[in-house]
């Protein structure tokens, strides 16, 4: 690992040794049952975990940005993840919708752009043609 790891503010790890139909866990913490989204077995799938990770990161980032701008916290985030492709070449499509009540649409777009650049999960996805972020006045289905 690089020296940047020595400067980490926080580290964690996730372990899965059972595959898609099994369990994943954080040592000493969270344990989730996993399953494929293509069947009706109980469990959480990677698409759901990605949507939760991105929506939580964007929401927390927006809350901090609103506070910095002395605005009440009204932002809400909806992340949709689609699983596409065929055997040996699957992809995720990720679309984040950000709705911020109480400000004009231009301001909401500016706050969205700032959150997109600051959110760590968004930074990981940035540059992918499969990732989009949009400012909305109401949540819509793709």
TrEMBL record:
Gene3D superfamilies: 3.30.300.20
Domain of life: Bacteria
Family statement drawn from the similarity comment of this UniProt entry: Belongs to the OsmC/Ohr family.
Protein known as: OsmC family protein
